[in-house]
């Protein structure tokens, strides 16, 4: 039985690249599977394109590139570049969170929610009677 796998930036980048290869090929999942000599089922090809279940394996990636006549080396370079961009954005987001969150750590839940509410100043105003 397979265990749940936590996807990495490289997994997400690989899935996007594979989805593009599949879409650009114009082939059906069954046709791609046939071009792979059924080494990868049409159901698995669908899962790869939609990012379901496990990330694409290297063997599946190479067969997909071969079946769809795509250069795997160029595509792999694009995957690495995209994954590095994802990781960079994730690091920036974490750094920003680390800088912002300590200001709020001792606030009660109501004040924490209010501190992040974009309409807090409007809602704090009392209507003129």
State the gist of this model.
The chain is mainly α. The chain is 66% helix and 0% strand. It has seven helices and no strands.
- Overall outline: elongated
Tell me about the largest β-sheet. none
Strand content: under 5%
Q: What's the number of helices? A: 7
Percentage of residues in helical conformation: 55-70%
DSSP strand count? 0
Question: pLDDT under 50 segments (min length 5)?
Answer: none
Order of helices and strands: HHHHHHH
Would you kindly provide a written description of the structure presented here, covering whatever features stand out?
The model has no long low-confidence stretch (mean pLDDT 84). The longest helix has 29 residues, at 72-100. This protein is mostly helical. It contains seven helices and no strands.
Features:
129 residues; mainly alpha; 0% strand
SSE blueprint:
Blueprint: H1 9-25, H2 29-35, H3 42-50, H4 58-67, H5 72-100, H6 109-116, H7 120-124
Helix pairs in contact: 1-3, 1-5, 2-3
